[in-house]
Amino acid sequence: MLIALVIIIAFVFIFAMAGIKIIRPYEKGVVERLGKFNRIGESGLQFIIPLFERMTKVDMREQVIDVPPQEVITNDNVVVSVDAIIYYQVTDAYMVLYNISMFQDAAVKLAQTNLRNVIGELELDQTLTSREMINTKLREVLDDATDSWGVKVSRVEIKRIDPPQDITDAMSRQMKSERIKRAVILEAQGIKESEITKAEGKKQAWILDAQGKAEAVRLEAEARKFQLSTEAEGQAEAIYKVFESIHKGKATDDVIAIKYLEALKDISNGKASKIFLPLEASGILGSIGAIGEMFNKKEQEQKEEK
Q1: 160 pairs with which residues across the strands?
Q2: Is the pTM of this model over 0.85?
Q3: Cα(94)–Cα(38) distance, rounded to whole angstroms?
Q4: Is 32 helix (H, G, I), strand (E, B) or coil?
Q5: Lowest mean pLDDT: which of 10-24, 118-132, 215-229, 256-270?
Q6: CB neighbours of 160 closer than 8 A, spacing ≥ 6?
Q7: How many CB atoms within 10 Å of residue 287?
Q8: Going by DSSP bridges, is the β-strand pair 53-59/44-47 parallel, antiparallel, or unpaired?
């Protein structure tokens, strides 16, 4: 009797333990009762009825599927090897269990098929330079297809696009030629810019030299003008003072005539071939003639007295 009781207790304990399920924070539990969907168990401690209920845990984290390499023909009939990575996340635990069987295999086949379709519309050069566009198209196609499976495709990344070896060699030679071409163009542009800079420098130097000479001529002319103006002002002032002294001293016409003679002496210093006299000088010269006649008269009278 005691043994039977122990067996019953052990059976109840095992039965109870079988009904205890622990669901982690990133999981959800799909509970079936007698083969029919019953409920979704959230994270934490959950209880099911053993033998009558069964729980399937679904990982709700973002996961990665590696699409193996496959050969794809481009629009210009070049065979390339392409592989990719798919990032997805389950959004509905019920749909991912009941709407699709072997989801990962289905996603891989779907990605391979659409890779052929997308790359088949592009030429080789476009395929190699349009990875972002290919990724976007693949993601949109896969996301639409997996929406009814309760899965969200967040990203699709092309890992490698490998053209045949002969195409790779040709592309390498082309790239080398392009680099040499760019180097030659840059060198020519550098020489051109250098010559332009030199020409601009010479032009600027000539302009500055001409401006310097013009400035020197202008300054010299201003200096000459200032000199002549100063000399003229000095002569005018001297003449004014002489004139003023003569008038203050109440000089006679004879004295004025003598001053004119002194001036004529300075004027006719041998350097001038012609002498221009002012109009009023005729009266003064007449006075000078009169003075000469007066001296002649006096000499004659002295001779007669003797």
Answers
A1: 83
A2: no
A3: 10
A4: strand
A5: 256-270
A6: 69, 81, 82, 83
A7: 17
A8: unpaired
Alpha helices in 80-164 (DSSP H): 93-98, 103-120, 124-129, 131-146
Single-letter amino acid, residue 294: M
Q: List the one residue out of 159, 186, 164 whose CA is nearest residue 85.
A: 159
Residues 6+ apart with CB under 8 A from 114: 137, 138, 141, 142
Backbone angles phi, psi at 164, to 5 degrees: -60, 160
> CA-CA distance, 26 to 42, in Å (whole number)?
9
What is the C-alpha separation between 16 and 21, in angstroms, rounded?
Answer: 10
**pLDDT value, residue 30:** 92
Token pair of 157 as six digits? 């990344």
Q: What is the pLDDT of residues 182-229, one digit of tens each?
A: 888 888 888 888 888 888 888 888 888 888 888 888 888 888 888 888
Residues 6+ apart with CB under 8 A from 95: 148, 149, 150
Q: What is the pLDDT of residue 262?
A: 59
Q: Please report which helix (H) or strand (E) contains residue 267, including its range.
A: helix 253-267
Task: Give the separation between CA 82 and CA 119, rounded to whole angstroms.
Answer: 9
At a CB cut-off of 8 Å and minimum separation 6, what does 104 contact?
Answer: 65
Residues composing the chain: 306
Closest residue by Cα to residue 159 from 134, 122, 123: 134
Is the pLDDT score of 278 beyond 60?
Answer: no
> Which strand (E) or helix (H) includes residue 45?
strand 44-47
pLDDT of residue 279: 45
C-alpha to C-alpha distance for 67 and 110, rounded to whole angstroms: 10
Which of 43, 122, 141 is closest to 82 using CA atoms? Answer: 122
CA distance 130 to 126: 6
The whole-angstrom separation of Cα 101 and Cα 109 is: 13
- Give the residue-averaged pLDDT of 158-169: 80
Question: Could you identify the residue written with the tokens 């622990």?
Answer: 22
The CATH code of the domain at 62-163 is 3.30.479.30
Per domain, the residue ranges of the chain are 2-59, 62-163, 165-237, 251-295
